[in-house]
Amino acid sequence: MVVPIRVAIAEDNVLLLDGIARLISATTDFELAGTATSYDELLALVADTDPDVVVTDIRMPPSGTDEGIRAADAIRSSHPETGVIVLSQFVSPAYAVALLAGGSDGRGYLLKDRLADVDDLVAGIRVVAIGGSVIDPKVVEQLVASNRSTETPVARLTPREREVLGEMAQGKTNAAIAASLVLSERAVEKHINSIFSKLHLTEEPNVNRRVAAVLVYLAEGDAGHTPADVAARFPSRG
């Protein structure tokens, strides 16, 4: 018997909450850990059930602003092994940037208008459960809208730049990247500036270029996980 991926859901729209709960319950390798309709209820649910993945709306009571993002930050501190997928109707990269500010491992940002394809959510939960990341392609399109080349943005990077970007995706500082790749901090800075240039990332006030670069990297699939990775994380009991 396969160990199920335990999923907690937070959503104040009762119909959507019920729909996602039914999907989780009907998926063979998933188990519904519980549901919540507010920020406080979600944090209490996580404390009580220790789920593998939380699927949460970006806006919930009490303020209806960014509870999903703040909950993800709180869960990173209290339950670092729990993945979080934020569901949003907002394509703006700023929200995804905020979600990934503390690191991209075990984090996902999906648009609600794409949930008609339930396979996207199911696949996203499986990836996030093992520490991977999923970002809706429409969000990344906003970051690279000025790029009209048929070549993918990350394909322009040198092997070393891809290594640096991979380290950035883990939330590492320049000093930590330098130590990991045996480079000077100045060299790391030069690689990062080159990455920003090749990915056509601007210095807009509401978009952190460092996290924006990670978004593009994740969308290219460089940090993806295969079904075998999922099986290794959730093996059979027998």
DSSP strand count: 6
Enumerate the spans where pLDDT stays under 50 for 5 or more consecutive residues: none
Radius of gyration: 18 Å
Principal-axis shape? elongated
**SS-derived structural category:** alpha/beta
Fraction in beta strands: 5-15%
Average pLDDT for all residues = 84
- Count of separate structural domains: 2
* Oligomeric assembly: single chain
- Which series of helices and strands comes N to C? EHEHEHEHEHEHHHHHH
Secondary structure tally, helices:
11
Strand order of the largest sheet: 2-1-3-4-5-6
CATH architecture of the largest domain: 3-Layer(aba) Sandwich
Full CATH superfamily name of the largest domain: Response regulator
The helix content, as a percent range, equals 40-55%
Structure in words:
The chain is an alpha/beta fold. The chain has 2 domains: 5-132, Response regulator (Rossmann fold), CATH 3.40.50.2300; 142-219, Winged helix-like DNA-binding domain superfamily/Winged helix DNA-binding domain (Arc Repressor Mutant, subunit A). Helix content is 47%, strand content 13%. The chain contains 11 helices and 6 strands. Helix 5 (118-129) links the parallel strand 5 and strand 6. The radius of gyration is 18 Å and the shape is elongated.
